[in-house]
Each structure stands twice: as structure tokens, then as C-alpha cells.
Write a structure and sequence with these properties.
The structure is a single chain. The protein is mostly helical. It folds into 2 domains: about 5-270, no CATH class; about 275-400. About 70% of the residues lie in helices and about 0% in strands. The chain has a two-stranded antiparallel ribbon. The two termini are about 55 Å apart. Bound molecules: zinc ion (2 copies). One zinc ion (ZN) binds near residues 63, 95, 99 and 233.
Length: about 400
């Protein structure tokens, strides 16, 4: 066995951490026992660790699918450091290569080299550890450079000592926390990330791009905090969502959305629905074409579906435009009213009734007009939706039984 191709420190850490943690946990459970609070804390910390990787390392730093407030960046970095998954610069640089060179020898975790290689094996290799970092946009960030420079001491501090200190303060147990919220949490959350590179290229369907190994699976999404919609992600890596339907399990997308609501994130990037639908139809069409059953009427149906989707997007845009336009108009007449009141000064009280009546009339007129337009556009949206779903149902029949 040629040992020189392996990176021994990484190799030793990845094998020893889970092994020692599990043995210590068993012994500690036997001789001392764990406070239930420690287990709850470890569980919560594990969920946060996973999110700091999926929200932070992955969708924020690697793909820049949204912008985050510096405090959020800092917190994501702090918890992310505790995951022992390398500094952001290394992680993101490798991950960008994975997207760029997917299913080729250039992909550091190429699934073509087997399940084990994509899952963990690649990290044992010196060639992977020594891959040069290429992420010029991230390399400019002082916080990320600091994390890279002092990674190991910072990871020991945040990954082991911090949880142990917290459990000592909360439950008076330093070593219990060190073992469960430190070592075991790290081992488990690492596996959750590793699944994305292995199982998410193995299990599931390929609705958006049938030419790549990445797959969509709700089961994998549950194991990976939403990253299991991996075929979509590889097809549209800029989108801040991986599960694009509201009901698809993607806590990462929900977290980013919540952050945007409280003003801690902005410019959430999404791919237009029409482009997503077009990709889906293309995949279906290639399946039907392989069966030699593509017809002109089917192509016509595809064009009609895309037309309806385009119309829907146009109407939805129009809907929000009208809403904000009328909101602005209403604010404008309120401002006018206040200004005239101020300008009239003492004379206001004698003109009050007249002025209020005028204000009410204009305001009602605007509201009526708005309501009429909104009702109209809502009806159009509803009709287009019904038409679209009818056509999609027809399309699905062709896809399954053609
Ligand atoms: Zn992938
Ligand atoms: Zn990615």
C-alpha cells in the first residue's frame, strides 16, 4: 500500500474522532451517565452546525445566492468553524470545482470514482487536500482569511471547548458536553454533509438535467437540511432554494427567507419559473424522444405550456406593480392633504369639512379603481393557472404512457 498518497493528519482525525467519541460516550454513559439537557443541547447545536454549513459555507459563500448582514456572516462562520469541515476558502473552492467539473476526473469528489471516494475517500488523499484555493472574491474577505489562517486552533475552540464550556455552565458537566456536543456532534454533522457528495449523486430522480449524476430525493433532503434536491441545485446553482416548492423540505431555504424578513439577508436570488419549467420539459421530451414518440402536437403542447407560464409570470409582475403603484398614490394624496392642512394654518378649521370630503372622494376613487384592476388581474392569473395545470396534466400523461 502506497501511504504517500494519503494525507495522514486528516486521515487520522477522520477515523479517530468518531471512534474515540463513541467509545468515550459508551464508557461515560456506563460510569457517569448523561444529563438529558446535554443531549438536547447537542441536538440543537448539531442542527445549527448543519445549517451553518448549508446556509453559510454552501449557499452564501460558495454560491453567493444571497447577501447577509456582517453579524450573520460572523455567526455562520463561528458555528461553521465548529464543524471541522475545513475553512470556507478551501470548502468553497473545492465545491465550485465540483460544480464546474461535475462527473469528470477534475471533480475532487467525482462520483465516477465510486461511492466511497465521493463520500469520504477523497479527503484522505493528499491530492485533494493540496488542491490550490481559487476563490478570488472570497479571498478578499479579511474574516475568511483569518478563519483560514488559524483554522485548527479555532476549530478546537469552537468545536470542542465551546460546547463543553456551555454544558459545564448549564448542567455542571464539562466532559459529557465535550464528548456528545463536541466529538459525536462533529462526526454526525460531517456525515450529513458527506451524504450530499455521495448519496445525492446516487439516490433519486433527475427532473431538471438528465445528463448529470446529481439527483433529487426528499429522503436525502431530510438527511441534509434540504440539499437533497441536488439535481435542481446542479442545474440552477445560483438559486437560494434547493427545494423550490413551498412544501419541499428545505430548512436552509426557510432560514435564508426568515433572515431576509428580519432584514438580516437581502438580494435572494431565484431562477425564473419559466426557465425551470423549460428545463423540466426538455428532460421529459428527451425521454419521450428516446421512445420515438415525439409528435408535432406534443411540441405544440410544450410551446403552449411555456407560453402560459410566461403569461403567468407577466401577470404576477403586473399584479405586484399595480399594488405598489396604488400604495404610492394613496400615500401621495395623504401627503397632499397634510401639506394643505399645514398651509391653511388657522383657516383650516373653517375649510375642514370641505377638505375632508374632497380627500375622501379622491381616496375612494383610487381604491375603487385599484380593486377593479386587482380583481381583473386576479381572475386572469387564476384562469392562466387552471389552463397551465390542465396542460401540464396532459403533458404528464404523454410522459408516462407515450
Ligand atoms: Zn453535487
Ligand atoms: Zn453547490
Amino acid at each position: 500500500m502506497n501511504l504517500s498518497k494519503y494525507h495522514l493528519p486528516v486521515w487520522i482525525y477522520l477515523v479517530l474522532n468518531p471512534l474515540i467519541s463513541v467509545l468515550l460516550a459508551a464508557a461515560y454513559y456506563h460510569y457517569v451517565g448523561f444529563h438529558a439537557g446535554i443531549l438536547v443541547f447537542a441536538f440543537v447545536f448539531a442542527a445549527l452546525t448543519n445549517l451553518s454549513i448549508t446556509v453559510g459555507y454552501h449557499r452564501l459563500f460558495s454560491h453567493r445566492s444571497f447577501e447577509a448582514h456582517p453579524a450573520v456572516r460572523f455567526l455562520l462562520l463561528l458555528v461553521g468553524t465548529s464543524a471541522w469541515q475545513w475553512p470556507v476558502l478551501k470548502w468553497a473552492s473545492d465545491h465550485r470545482i465540483h460544480h464546474h467539473r461535475i462527473d469528470t476526473a477534475g471533480d475532487p469528489y467525482d462520483i465516477g470514482r465510486g461511492f466511497w471516494h465521493a463520500h469520504m475517500g477523497w479527503m484522505f488523499l493528499r491530492e485533494s487536500i493540496d488542491l490550490p484555493i481559487r476563490a478570488p472574491d472570497l479571498q478578499k474577505d479579511a474574516m475568511l482569511r483569518f478563519q483560514e489562517r488559524y483554522y485548527v486552533p479555532l476549530a478546537i475552540l469552537t468545536g470542542y471547548l465551546l460546547p463543553a464550556l456551555l454544558t459545564w455552565l448549564m448542567f455542571g458537566d464539562f466532559f459529557g458536553g465535550l464528548i456528545v456536543a463536541g466529538g459525536i456532534r462533529i462526526a454526525l454533522t460531517q456525515q450529513s454533509t458527506f451524504f450530499i457528495n455521495s448519496l445525492c449523486h446516487y439516490v433519486g430522480s433527475r427532473p431538471y438535467d438528465a445528463t448529470i449524476s446529481a439527483r433529487d430525493s426528499w429522503l436525502m433532503a431530510i438527511l441534509t437540511h434540504g440539499e437533497g434536491y441536488h439535481n435542481f441545485h446542479h442545474a440552477f446553482q445560483l438559486d437560494y432554494r434547493n427545494g423550490i416548492r413551498w412544501y419541499q423540505w428545505d430548512p436552509t431555504k426557510w432560514t435564508i427567507y426568515l433572515l431576509s424578513i428580519v432584514g438580516a439577508a437581502k438580494n435572494l436570488r431565484t431562477i425564473p419559473a419559466e426557465a425551470i419549467l423549460r428545463a423540466r420539459l426538455q428532460v421529459d421530451e428527451s425521454v419521450i424522444a428516446k421512445r420515438g414518440q415525439i409528435t408535432d402536437s406534443l411540441k405544440g403542447l410544450r410551446d403552449k405550456i411555456l407560453g402560459a407560464q410566461k403569461q403567468l409570470a407577466k401577470l404576477t409582475n403586473e399584479y405586484s406593480r399595480i399594488k405598489s403603484e396604488y400604495r404610492e398614490r394613496k400615500l401621495q394624496i395623504e401627503r397632499d392633504y397634510r401639506n394643505r392642512k399645514l398651509a391653511l394654518g388657522a383657516a383650516y378649521s373653517s375649510k375642514k369639512i370641505e377638505l375632508q370630503a374632497e380627500y375622501r372622494r379622491i381616496s375612494e376613487e383610487i381604491t375603487d379603481c385599484r380593486n377593479r384592476k386587482i380583481a381583473e388581474i386576479r381572475r386572469d392569473i387564476k384562469l392562466t393557472r387552471i389552463e397551465l395545470s390542465g396542460m401540464l396534466a396532459q403533458w404528464k400523461v404523454h410522459r408516462s404512457f407515450a
